[in-house]
Write a structure and sequence with these properties.
CATH topology of the largest domain: Rossmann fold
Largest sheet: 6 strands, parallel
CATH superfamily of the largest domain: NAD(P)-binding Rossmann-like Domain
Helix content: 40-55%
CATH architecture of the largest domain: 3-Layer(aba) Sandwich
Number of helices: 10
Radius of gyration: 19 Å
Order of helices and strands: EHEHEHEHHHEHEHEEHEH
Bound molecules: NADP nicotinamide-adenine-dinucleotide phosphate
Shape: globular
Distance between the termini: 46 Å
Strand content: 5-15%
Length: 278
């Protein structure tokens, strides 16, 4: 068994982003800019946004923080996001999820201009990603693809099983692997034979949000195991110890998928800055 080291792959990616940011700033006279939008007071969301802003600073990307109150309406949030979409100084927009329940999240995400959707959350981004057209991948699945590429894990002809079908993770993950010629099965909460499906997989991606739901004994010997789950106590969605004994490659939790998600956000912000020019 060998480790898919997300910390190391993310450090390599961010070092490259840093070089590109310096070159961009020198050439255009302004730094690349990521705008973050935070609605309400969810402590975890505040922590995530702060982490992303710190990483921006470390690589020479400027960040602008827009904070809106817990009582914000859909109209107010849409107007704030539209203003950023129209602002020439902004290269990328991140609307931190989740937003308070009174807000129509879908409308708010769709207010992000696809050319600035560096978090890959709009319908246009999903379509572009699914057909390998220019655009931005949802960051967690995009980061997982970068991690697999960093270790030369070839997906062509492999049977990939994705557990979870969320808009930001499971479904886009499946589409990205399909574009790489994997044969893809998507499992979800109504799947009746999860253990059997996982046991058929050459590549398993767990994206559920339930501690150790995927048991080590289900893993086919030699399979590649990617654990996107992050649960309280630094526990993933895969039973790590037992799975590691059977897997050829496995991501640790933490230090696997998480660092790649942020690095991908910043790399895509850099892509947007370069596409948009000065
Ligand atoms: P989500 O929106 O709650 O989706 C969970 C998915 O898992 C759903 O599709 C659900 O099926 C499925 N599911 C639930 N119980 C299941 C079961 N018993 N068997 C099979 N499938 C089941 O979660 P998410 O946003 O995709 O996140 C998933 C995990 O990834 C979480 O642990 C989250 O913390 C983590 N995450 C990590 C990062 C990172 O950067 N590392 C980023 C995002 C998320 P239904 O569709 O049928 O309900």
């Amino acid at each position: 068994m060998a480790i898919l080291d997300g910390q190391a792959a993310a450090a390599d990616l961010l070092a490259h982003v840093g070089l590109r940011a310096a070159e961009f700033t020198e050439r255009t006279g302004r730094a690349p800019m990521l705008a973050t939008v935070l609605v309400g007071s969810d402590p975890a969301s505040h922590t995530y946004v702060k982490m992303k802003q710190n990483r921006c600073r470390q690589v020479g990307i400027e960040s602008r923080r827009v904070e809106l109150g817990q009582e914000t309406t859909t109209e107010e949030l849409v107007a704030a996001v539209e203003a950023l979409s129209a602002d020439d100084a902004v290269d990328g927009i991140l609307l931190q999820h989740p937003v308070p329940p009174q807000i129509d999240e879908h409308l708010a995400f769709e207010a992000i201009s696809p050319e600035k959707d560096v978090d890959g959350v709009t319908l246009a981004s999903f379509a572009a990603m699914s057909f390998s057209e220019p655009g931005y991948a949802s960051c967690t699945p995009g980061g997982i693809m970068r991690l697999l590429d960093a270790y030369d894990v070839d997906l062509a002809g492999k049977h990939a099983v994705v557990v979870g079908r969320s808009r930001i993770l499971g479904k886009p993950m499946a589409m990205l692997m399909l574009e790489r010629n994997a044969t893809v099965t998507i499992c979800h909460s109504r799947t009746t034979d999860l253990a059997d499906r996982v046991a058929e997989a050459d590549v398993v991606v767990a994206a559920v949000g339930r501690p150790e739901l995927v048991r080590g004994a289900w893993i086919k010997p030699g399979a590649v195991v990617v654990d996107a789950g992050y649960n309280a106590g630094n526990v993933g969605d895969v039973e790590y110890g037992a799975a590691a004994e059977r897997a050829s490659w496995i991501t640790p939790v933490p230090g696997g998928v998480g660092p790649m998600t942020i690095a991908t956000l910043l790399a895509q912000t850099m892509d947007s800055a370069e596409r948009r020019g000065a």
